[in-house]
Structure formats: structure tokens, C-alpha cells
Amino acid sequence: MLKKTRCDGTYLRGLHHYTRMTPYMMPTRTESTIYFEQEFDVTDTLAYLKEKNGGEGELTFFQVFLCALTRTMTERPDLNRFISGFNYYQRNEILLNFVAKKEKSDDGEEINVTIPFSPYETLSTVPEKVRSHIERGKSEAGNESEDTNILLMKLPRPFIRLFLKGYALLDFYNLAPESLIRVDPMYSSVFITNVGSIGIDAPFHHNFERGNCGIFIALGMIRKKRYIEDDGTVGERDVVKVTFTYDDRIKDGVYCARAIELFRNYVENPRQLEAEPDLSEEQLARLMLKDYPPSLAKKKQYESEPVPQSV
């Protein structure tokens, strides 16, 4: 019998029969991929950053982007699903991965940074978390995935191919070691490529058959866009292209379209991200996060209540 327990997710029961059949009809992510392109108006976002930072640039646009994505994943938890061995799982962490360069040059070494985010993240908590993980990734001891790659590439080519095939087989039967899953960036909720940071526009990212990440997002450079006002004058706005590469088996198009609109709203109106979300026990239960059980909602509510003063 197929083992249904995994270190990175909870097996989902009670799904619609057609949903459960979908991985059999489309066994690979390549054939089930949808490509979607959007343009976000970030004029007000940049004005907010200027006001917030006082010209010093402490909070970045990319950090706002990550916080908005985390809030969207929290409110649209079905996006955090994945498929393994033709079964559906709810990921037990909100894991966002992106590539950073140790040096901004053509030959600068790239590192993968995977960050577990809390459903209660705000614009005041995200920056330090991002900075600390990037610094750790740049350190010699902080990039476990690269250490694994270095070790593998010391082997002869037939052994590398055999290892990857064996690893895929173990993963299919939910037997892959947790130590390898934890350092592999392809086992994340969303993989983000911030090509805007190097001054180019967003391409459509390819998908990976390895791992279980079903959403890839490319963030392009911020540019000026001119348009015609109702009175015939020419206006100008700051816009950014965002492309999505999405495994259509995870959730239907209506759910995802509403999630993208929610995501856009948070990016374009970042003041909403200053306060923690008010999550109910039902919402936390649907997220199925290992570090945030439903009882935490009551705990946070209790901690936030004013202490009665004795008379």
C-alpha cells in the first residue's frame, strides 16, 4: 500500500472524485502548466515606500512583494497544495524560495534562499527575516542545497543519474529522506525569480518535474507606462510585469484568478500589510501548518486582550 504520510505535508481526504482523478489524466507538471501574465500598478506602492523609509530605503519593494504573497497564501490556503504519488497534500509550511547572487556581476555565484513565513507576517517582520536568511545563505555554513550539489558532482555521471532516478522513486512513494527534502528548493510553496533586480523584464519561468513546487513567479523591473487620461492629457504610472507558471492540478482557475487579484491588491495597497491578519480557528485549521495549530488563534486572542485591573 502506498505510504501517505510525508514530512512536508498532510494527506488530503474528501476531495472531489474528478480532482483526485486529475493527476492520473495529467501525470506531469509540464503538461498541466498554465502561463499567466499580469501588470501591477505600483505607483502608490513606491510612494508608500518613500514615505515609510524617509529616503533611506530600509523596506524594499521585493519585501513588500514577499509579504503580500505570504498574506495571499494565508487567505487562499489551497494554493499551498502539492501532488505526490498521485495524491494531494496540504503543505505544512509557507515556504517561499528565490535566487540571490553573492555578488551582482555576470560571474556572481547564485544561491537559493528558502524562507518559512508565518501566516501572521507583517511589513515590520518580513525585512529582518529576509535579510537574515540571505546572509545565512551567503555564508559558507548556510547553503545546504549547494553543499549537496557539490557532493553529487564529485560522482561519475552514471551515479548522478542513478541517484536522481532513485531519489524521484523514493519521493513518489513518500520515502525520500527529510534531510534532502528540507534543503531542496523544489520542495517549496512558491519559487520566485526577481529578474527586475538585474534590470530585465519578467519571462515565463519553466516548471520542474523534480520536487513538488507547483507555482513559479517571475517579477520584472519597474518601468514607466504612459496612458491617455479622459481629458486627453498624457499620464504616467509605475508598473511591473509579473508572470505566473502554475500547476493547474492544484486548484481550479476561478480560485486562482481570485487569488491573483487578492495578491495584486496587497502589492498595490501595502498599508493593509502593516497589521497582522485576524485568523479564526477554522482558517488556521484549513492551512494545516505544523507550527500554527488552530488553538493558537485562541492563544493570540487571549494575549491581545487587556488585563483586567483590580479595583
CATH homologous superfamily heading: Chloramphenicol acetyltransferase-like domain
Radius of gyration: 21 Å
Domain count, please report it: 1
So what's the CATH class? Answer: Alpha Beta
Total of DSSP H or I helical runs spanning 4+ residues: 10
Q: State the share of residues found in helices, binned by percent.
A: 25-40%
Can you tell me the CATH architecture?
Answer: 2-Layer Sandwich
Record field, number of beta strands: 9
**What gross morphology would you assign?**
globular
Structure description:
The protein has 10 helices and 9 strands. It has a single domain, classed as Chloramphenicol acetyltransferase-like domain (Chloramphenicol Acetyltransferase), CATH 3.30.559. The protein has 311 residues and is of the alpha+beta class. The N and C termini lie far apart (65 Å). The protein is globular and about 65 Å long.
Topology:
Layout: E1 9-11, H1 17-25, E2 33-41, H2 43-53, H3 61-75, E3 81-84, E4 87-91, E5 94-101, E6 110-117, H4 126-138, H5 144-152, H6 157-172, H7 178-181, E7 190-194, E8 215-228, E9 234-247, H8 253-268, H9 281-287, H10 295-304
Parallel strand pairs: 5-7, 7-8
Antiparallel strand pairs: 1-4, 2-9, 3-4, 5-6, 8-9
Helix pairs in contact: 3-8
